Amino acid sequence: MAERRDALLVTHTGRKDSTEHARTVAADLLAAGFGVRVVEEEAEDLDLPGVTPVCGPEAAAGTEIVFALGGDGTFLRAAELARPYGAPLLGINLGRVGFLAEAEIHDLDQAVRNVVAREYTVDERLTLDVTAELGEIELARSWALNEVSVEKNARERMLELLVDVDGRPLSRYGCDGVVCATPTGSTAYAFSAGGPVVWPEVEALLLVPISAHALFSRPLVTAPTSTFVITVEPYTTGALLCCDGRRTFDLPPGARVTVRRGELPVRVVRLRPRPFTDRLVAKFELPVVGWRGQA
């Protein structure tokens, strides 16, 4: 009896081209003998015979691979489904930058062939676990692949935050917020806040203050075993906890947010060896030929 192989497709059905590419991938996988699942709310738009609509957090249970067809937002949504089951996640960039994706749209057919032939490797990406508490009351519990941020919810306000690292107070900030990021997330929100780019293979945590009114407001890179505690000062209102820009929670005055390395990584598919330097140059269009355009 042939081994059953299942794949889950996650895509951005609001875009016509994404829907068409998802149909192509599904048809190729079905022809190769895969069972193909699609997220239930996307099934009607995809209108694909032979696929199985699935819903809920167990959508990726038992799958060999999860395809994310879209931009980084689609990848992060697919990661929520793949992570609990250790399912490898393959990103196909149909968006603009698509920093998290392994392949571009012109690689689509080859990517499917590689998956069918099992010609790929899997990297494990460090994640963050986060809890928010007020005294003995747990306000929120979540995780992130890119970053956890504590930030203000209104332009006219400033937050007053106390940051502890490894159980010791580091600094108080009057700021727009603080970003705690992974190396994977170093090219996302943390980068726009002035943080460093960290190669994905590096095991570390990042802490980046946002627009801090403080003499010392440099971004920090700590050990992967470090723990960050961000306390919203008792007289400060209008704070939000945000995980990967997808899961948001209100933080009352006095709330304490604890961020540490996640227990579960996200497993990311690699189709071919490619230095991170090349990805950085391509995605940011860095001028490697010289600033005057000379070789």
Task: Describe the SSE topology.
Layout: E1 6-11, H1 16-31, E2 35-39, H2 40-46, E3 52-54, E4 65-70, H3 72-82, E5 89-93, E6 103-104, H4 108-116, E7 121-125, E8 128-134, E9 137-144, E10 147-152, E11 159-165, E12 168-175, E13 177-181, H5 189-192, E14 205-210, E15 220-222, E16 227-232, E17 239-243, E18 247-251, E19 256-261, E20 266-270, H6 276-284
Parallel strand pairs: 1-2, 1-4, 2-3, 4-5, 5-6
Antiparallel strand pairs: 7-20, 8-9, 8-19, 10-13, 10-17, 11-12, 11-16, 13-14, 14-15, 16-19, 17-18
Proportion in helices: 10-25%
Give the uncertain stretches in residue-range form.
none
Shape: globular
Please tell me how large the radius of gyration is: 21 Å
The multimeric state of the shown protein is single chain
Instruction: Classify the secondary structure makeup into a structural class.
Output: alpha+beta
Distance between the termini: 58 Å
Beta-strand portion reads 35-45%
For the residues shown, what is the average pLDDT? 90
